[in-house]
Amino acid sequence: MSGPTVAAATTGGTPAAAEGTVLAVLGVAAFSLTFPATAWALEGLGPWSVTTCRVVLAALVAGGLLLARRAPLPARRQWPALFAVAGGTVVGFPLLTTLALRTSTTSHAAVVVGLLPLTTAAYAAVRHRTRHSRAFWAAALAGAAVVIGFALQQSGGAPTLGDLYLFAALLVCAAGYAEGGGLAREMPGRQVIGWALVLCLPVAAAGAAVALWAEPVRITGHAVAGLLWLAVGSQFLGLLVWYRGMAAIGVARASQVQLAQPLLTLVWSVSLLGEHLSPATPLAAVAVLVCIVVTQRTRG
Questions:
Q1: Apex CA 197: angle with CA 193 and CA 200, to 5°?
Q2: What is the model's pTM?
Q3: CA 228 and chain centroid, separation
Q4: How far, in Å, CA of 41 to CA of 67, rounded?
């Protein structure tokens, strides 16, 4: 997407801005199903098999689309950002959250990862040297404190290995979102995620072959459905519309849309997985949501 096109798209009240909001909403809806789909996939596959197979399947779809569209190769200056997207959103976040979900419930993970808009905003502030108000940073720190306190309360006073995986996933995904959101102002969102996936295909294919040999495989309806959604829904289509939405309405407004993601995931964890929520879970999710609203209203 060219500069003038993005400038027009980000003008509030235009049809392009409305379309961008719809795309961001679709992306959040797709992402909200990621953790339940991962839990289903883990019923029949190991964590390394889930991560590598989802990348392989999504990369094949993305590569086919790039070929069909005759997409040009990215410019040399765009490759570093693509590597950040690949490392953060294609490999890092899926792997770390899959490892976490071996021991954490999806509702617990949803609350912790609900901090993602804050970590993305903080990363972007440091990366682009953006100045924010004290209220912004106070709300960001409050949100972090809520999530850390929730994790400690749920685990009996000490962070679990699953929590450490989730916190690491926040950091790498924030980098992937921020770098990809900026890159989507220069090229279509489908090319951002498409080239990032293609970058990972050789390593993912080799990893999938090893993982499927080393880890137990039990084919079930849930495992197949979960893996297919992770590959096509979350990994490709979700990121495609998400980056297009961010390019159209900006990272700040897209982050506001993402406020609904943890709450949606809690709904799916109850309705699809039959999880029982502790009283602290929805309270922590709402508290994080309030902190994010404050950061969005006070950011520079």
A1: 145
A2: 0.81
A3: 17
A4: 29
